[in-house]
Fold this sequence. Notes:
Elements: E1 8-10, E2 18-19, E3 31-34, H1 36-47, H2 52-59, H3 63-83, E4 86-89, E5 94-96, E6 123-125, E7 132-134, E8 154-155
Parallel strand pairs: 1-5, 3-4
Antiparallel strand pairs: 2-4, 6-7, 6-8
Helix pairs in contact: 1-2, 1-3, 2-3
Amino acid sequence: xxxxxxxxxxxxxxxxxxxxxxxxxxxxxxxxxxxxxxxxxxxxxxxxxxxxxxxxxxxxxxxxxxxxxxxxxxxxxxxxxxxxxxxxxxxxxxxxxxxxxxxxxxxxxxxxxxxxxxxxxxxxxxxxxxxxxxxxxxxxxxxxxxxxxxxxxxxx
Length: 156
């Protein structure tokens, strides 16, 4: 029996979960699915220019495992670009963790509600229809439903 896969640690979420070539309708496109650990590997190594060994430590995987994840992600992205496919970011075996900040003490960076983005102000936005509402303090945006389409909101 194979060993169970260890959950990769993810610190960042994509701003958009779907990308498609311009001028082609979605129903006419093939999709390539990039999982969250692949997205995180690309974000660390290619976007943030973090060395693979340091990125592997942050994701709590070995460097060879990170290299395999990165190779898979790059292959999927290049396939989508070359063959005109849409890219969907979803799934994978991962665990979301709070971003760490250098020099932050035990209580530094945490708001009254315990999170990093739980402070007052801001808007909640619907990812489906784009409707916005004013953020209500103490109620996470992802627990509120859109007044127009009833889907869950996200924080802007």
